Amino acid sequence: MKKKLYILVITALSCLTAGLVSCDDYFDLRPQSEITLEDFWENEADVASAVGACYRGMNQEGFLKRMIVWGEVRSDNVVGGGNINNPNDGDAQALSRILNLSLTADNSYTYWGEVYSVINNCNNVIRFAPEVKKKDPNFSEIQFNTYMAEAVGIRALCYFTLLRTFRDIPLITEPTIDDSKPFEIEQARPDSVINFLIRDLKNVENKAMKTFKNNRVYDKGRITQKAIWALLADIYLWNNEYNNCIAYCDKILNDPEYRIDLELQSSATYNLNVFVTGNSKESIFELQFDPLNVRNNTIYKFYSYYDAPFGGTVFLLASYNFDKKKSTFFTSSDLRGKDAVFLESAYNGSYPIMKYTYYRQGVAYSQLEKDYTSTRRINDGSPNWIFYRLPDIYLMKAEALVEKNNLEEAYSMVRLSYNRANPENELPEIATHSQEALRNLVFDERQREFLFEGKRYFDLLRRIKRENSPTFVVQNFLIRKYVHLDMATVRTKLSDMDALFMPINKTELKLNTKLVQNPFYVESQDIIKN
Description:
Blueprint: E1 4-5, E2 8-10, E3 29-31, E4 35-36, H1 37-40, H2 44-59, H3 61-73, E5 78-80, H4 90-99, H5 113-135, H6 141-166, H7 190-204, H8 216-221, H9 225-238, H10 242-254, H11 256-261, H12 270-277, E6 283-287, H13 297-302, E7 317-319, H14 335-340, E8 358-360, E9 376-378, E10 385-389, H15 390-403, H16 407-421, H17 435-449, H18 456-467, H19 471-476, H20 487-494, H21 506-511, H22 519-529
Antiparallel strand pairs: 1-4, 2-3, 5-7, 6-10, 8-9
Helix pairs in contact: 2-5, 2-6, 5-6, 6-7, 6-9, 7-9, 9-10, 9-15, 10-15, 15-16, 15-17, 16-17
């Protein structure tokens, strides 16, 4: 019996077989009917289509919702928004339980299937592309290496996200093509997953496309060498390998070609160009969306004060009220406080998130109208989702430098992003600072720069992991968003290291009996049942 493969095709990827011609509709889709496996993997166009399926899987709403929920919702950045109490919205109910520290294994956001589906698409490419290379005489080594590096890079990004979310995850490297065999695989040790990802990425780092110079969408929307280097730097930082983190940041910062292609957007334009127009000069890798073919509905449902396509107030998430600590978190001149959060007023007591969904009109802070609200415009397009951009490299390097006690250079890295956001009130040259003071400066600067970009909870976990205790992070950051709950219960839950990771979804436990539930949630469910 023939094995069957189901796949979605990104039509513009077929253009790659014609020599990487410019295709602005790169992420448009053409559904492909059921294809027998033996008939599919025949030529380069088939590999291009399969790589397209990897990207398309990340464009799905279920995938992007998890990037926001796993990286933001459990952090100190967000609280419930105007629609969080809607009893008819399943997303609202699931998010509400997480925001009230009532996370259990039946919550829909503990389901990881959307991410493993992307991993399986990558496994297909990694498994079958070498066979196609042997069959197709026109399949060049450069193209083959490019596709393989993309599949490896996307798979590594997915696994790194899963690892930081669940900690104990299965490591699957072979494609699941049909359901003729039972799926039973146990979780791998976190350190073995990290080591695998590092080896895998290092094997392709010099085979990836360096840059797609003549196609901005490709250069920012596909895995390139600089995207792999950024991911390696991130993994090394998570693993407390600071010298390696610095080395990979420097590969990007010191490469002559990247120094030309990568630069910070100006203070006047970064909010518009980075988060609304997309594919900015400082972007390294971002998922591509567009209003007509692949719309980013998740951003509008989760963040937007005004749902541009349909009208009405629908946002599920809102910002923590940073205005309470404005003098220490956002200075009065920090454009990020003005661009990312609607602090001037609240809707039902919550502060809408502006990043991605609104943009600033005005060329400089000094020229903005006194009433900042009147300078905002609704983004009725469909914003991309950014995984890495240049400030990430600056601040990952700064964090590693602090841990190496190289404080002066770390401070210089922080000044780059801070000064861009504070053109009228720049961070002064370094004075005498302790390592702990610089550590906190970098930590706060990452929060200011990457608000609502799916990074904050992982930053908190990385600090907890480094300190081998949640005490500092819980007391100074996490606990403040739970003032409406019983504080004794909050402290108990947040002080347990196991509780900081997600439970394994109960359906996954039934389908794969070799999975072991996170111990905190086994105990929690027993208590609930009793």
